[in-house]
Amino acid sequence: MHPFGRFLPAGFNQVAADSWANDERIVIQATFFNLVPDLPAPLTDPAALRRGMAKMAAAQGGALIEADVTPVGGQPALRQIVKVKLPNQPHGQAFLGSYIVPKAACSAVLRVQAAESGRSGQREATVMDQVGPTNYFRPHPYGPDGEGGLPSHVADDPAYDARFPQHPLTRVRQVMAQLARQVELHPGFAALPPFAG
Predict the structure, then answer these.
(1) Residue 189 domain-assigned?
(2) Domain around 11
(3) Residues 107, 152: Cα–Cα separation, whole Å
(4) Torsion sign across C-alpha atoms 117, 120, 126, 132
(5) How far apart are CA 64 and CA 66, in angstroms?
(6) In whole angstroms, how far apart are CA 35 and each of 32, 68, 89, 186, 195?
(7) 19 lies in some domain
């Protein structure tokens, strides 16, 4: 069983063990891993953590959009959002957000995922038309280790979320913000020795 309590926003219904979804096909998953976390750096070194997570995402063909260390349920956690190609489809992306709460010998992970459906790429095409191709693509924000997967570009910036309120990236950010405000952790898990890296 996962150690998260009181975290589900309104409108989510259980669809599998430790998985919930809403009418927009946004999925929340809560998982406990009884293994030493495979994070590339401790939470006390966010720059190294971002570089390492960006490298991992790129190696898997995706891209780390953003990552930071933030409290979840009173415990330090890695918050990240990754984009990946939709499997077995020529176009489209899925956006995967997660809160990883690492401990010395285990971790709890709360994931939020949403995928493009129907006509994909409208956010990207609209923003590229606005800023121009020269200003659209940019170096990966966490350095060259993040290169090699999906490209980094300005359309993923949260500044565009209000303009595209139903885009899956916008919705992942919104649901993650809701979770951060209301999630609780089991006291036994919270008291475990911290992850030292």
Answers:
(1) no
(2) 4-184
(3) 29
(4) positive
(5) 6
(6) 9, 22, 33, 18, 11
(7) yes
Q: Per residue, what are the HEC states of the chain?
A: CCCEECCCCCCCEEEECCEEECCCCCEEEEEEECCCCCCCCCCCCHHHHHHHHHHHHHHCCCEEEEEEEEEECCEEEEEEEEEEECCCCCCCEEEEEEEEEEECCCEEEEEEEEECCCCCCHHHHHHHHHHCHHHHECCCCCCHHHCCCCCCEHHHCHHHCCCCCCCHHHHHHHHHHHHHHHCEECHHHHCCCECCC
Position 49 in a domain? yes
Residue 191 domain-assigned?
Answer: no
- pLDDT band at residue 146 using 50, 70 and 90 as cut-offs: confident
- The number of folded domains in the chain is 1
Give phi and psi for 17, each to the nearest 5.
-60, 120
| CATH number of the domain to which 18 belongs | 3.40.1000
Whole-prediction pTM:
0.95
Could you read off the pLDDT of 80-137 as tens digits, one per residue?
Answer: 999 999 988 888 999 999 999 999 999 999 999 999 987 888 999 999 999 999 999 9
CA distance 1 to 30: 9
